[in-house]
Records
---
Amino acid sequence: MMGRDELVDRVSKYNPETNKALIARAYDFAQDVHDHQTRKSGEKYFIHPKAVAEILTELKLDDATIATGLLHDTIEDTRATREEINKLFGDEIGALVDGVTKLDQLDLVTKKAEQAENFRKLLIAISSDVRVLLVKLADRLHNMRTMEHMRDDRRRHISRETMEIYAPLAGRMGIQWLRDELEDLSFRWLYPEAYETILARLEKLRSSYSRLIIEVEKELHLKLEEYGIDALVTNREKKPFSIWRKMENRQIALEQLCDIYGFRVITKSVEDCYRVLGVIHTTWQIVPGRFKDYISVPKSNDYQSIHTTIIGPERQRVELQIRTEKMHEVGEFGIAAHTLYKESIEDESNGKQHPKHDLLQDSSAYQWLRQLVDMLREGDNPEEFLEHTRLELFQDQVFTFTPNGGLIVLPHAATPIDFAYAVHTDIGDTCISCKINGRPMPLVTNLKNGDEVEINCAEGHMPPAAWENIAVTGKAKAAIRRSTRASMQEQYGRLGHEIIIQGFAFAERKFTKTLLEEKLFRLPQGSVVEVFAAVGRGELAVDLVISALYPDYVADDDSDVSVMKAAGHGEGGWLGKTMGLKFLWAGQPETIGPGSGIPIRGTPDDMPIRFAPKGGALPGERIVGIMTQGEGIIIYPIHAKALQKYDDQPERWVDVTWDIQSESRERFPALISVTTYNMPGSLARIAQLIGEADANIDKLRMVRRAVDFTEMMIGLEVWDIKHLNRIVAGIKAMKIVNRVFRIQG
Ligand code: MN
């Protein structure tokens, strides 16, 4: 741990114009006011602000930020006041310390509404001066590094907040090492067993890889020398959490990951990057589809590099990243790297002095932050906003193109719908079909890097409500929600009309709007349109409409009417009772009626809903409802194959979302297939892992049993999609397991 003079020295090393006296004063002041405080570990409290300032020097930040690091806890925890800080260190530092203090009071993993409001405050605070966020991130990093003495529940709470909010924000600011370390530390406290498993397996892998790494490195050096390229070669190992995340997302085993071990080749110029690429591709065989050129098309956080994967000796895959020194700085330090290039920018603007933090504001990471805040000001509901932003926080980018070559950057898993809205809201609202790379494709397709997308529009078309669940960008979701609120009513009307036509046809009675108009007095609704909408929403049974037009009509025994009778709406006087009568579908035993506590929002009141029998929708994954005749609304996961048959019937799609309180302790069924090598105790070990992961095994069936392997189907009861993914990844990480995947209807 460094003392005052060392800290000052360190700052002046990267910033010769540093105000040494200022930093020294901040150091002394903080040490003084924290004097009698201790940390949970029993150490002096001042250790903490000092360490935070030290982390900030690694990011090579300006004097005000370093001083803020030292002072960041003084207003909250000591007798010091904002006025005092202003007086002693100036308004700029006063405002920064105040900003960090305010962030400290925001709990970002609390109840949903409060969390949304707190997240909004966080964004507004950091968007006025992004240095507040950098200090907060350094503060969080040091706290995460020193949590052993904390209570376990507190530790998990802080880890969750770090994993969900601060690590993604560090990533968005482009500070890759900080993001990696925050994620890894949270991972360790949140999922200790998984962390240990991966560490152990990494160690094993490392021993078998080390010889190969040396071989590739030697060869690489030789080749670079042969071609006269001056470059630095370093090797790197993926962090346990990034491995875990990849295993979860891509559902593959640890050994199948291509990029656990890799090299970085750091060159002097962009030209050399491509020369190195040429050398690599002529020396080794490459893995197709793994080549990415983020130099031509940088990521939205300014990251630039070329990625390629080669097949090394012994057929092992090795990832190579090629970049210039400057790109490397930006890749590791992100937004903070912008302060490093102060001089060159000053030259271009005729020596005009920019405060360093102004340079921070030029970065695309900062632009992203500004955009978020603008979206907030447009007055989106904070809860929706939180949902959208958090989606965007976690997603990597895909780069897509318009037919005339315009670049549209979208989050991972974006669809042509998002693309259309990214181009223009009107295009999104009226889009009806698309071509991807010249081929007609469904609008639900996930776009890939390099896709060229052509959108076809039809004037007057309205987006179906369910698109809100299909779209992934905040912009598309908000626009769809706006335009579907109005058209929902119309959709129910169309569905109701269709149900009525079919119902009358089935009953072999004639139906016209005029006939209905004449007999309207027999129904509680005031107009034909309202009757259609009521039937569409499921509030009025079609048989009641038939009986209104044809009083002699008696439905078959197994039809809706008999259900109504059973429910006490029999023969005499039914007319008076239709008021407030809820639609009862012919009772399927597995139909879950209203009020049974099925946690779905967005369905018409009191309409029966149930889950698709093989769908196994889980909280946290995107879902849609399909209106059916006779079965109410059936809930499917968005990627269910069964949804394809409703593609051309947008009027049936109902926009639904989960309505789960974080305290809810309800479990949901999920089905997985596991193939294991036949080794003694395999099943017991899988069952043990599932138990330890806090899931239940509901049913188990051997599907196939061969000499060398067994395939089984396991029915689980889990909390949500994350829980399931965690279990699947955990099973996948087991040596005895050959293949695991989720079975979806
Ligand atoms: Mn602190």
Note: Confidence is low (pLDDT under 50) at residues 340-356, 557-596.
---
Amino acid sequence: MALMITERCTVCDACVPACQNNAIKKDFPKYVIDPKKCTECVGVDDEPQCKLVCTVDCIVSDPQWIETKEDLLAKFHRLHS
Ligand code: SF4
Ligand code: SF4
């Protein structure tokens, strides 16, 4: 399941460098996660790194993008092949 950023985002920029998949971009008035690039950090880390650095806890699971861990790992390999 990809993650998404809610309206509570303060546009602090902390999550952007934390994403190894380059999935987070500014889309005024907040940041957004590209679900085609977000693997929930599967392939690189044990837990979502953007959530760890977000001080306002505004990054949540995106119910529109239900994926298994295998799906996420396959996405990771596609992105980094
Ligand atoms: Fe990037 Fe990982 Fe956050 Fe997805 S969960 S946006 S891959 S840092
Ligand atoms: Fe927004 Fe959180 Fe990312 Fe900061 S770390 S830009 S508050 S989503």
Note: The chain is about 20% helix and 15% strand.
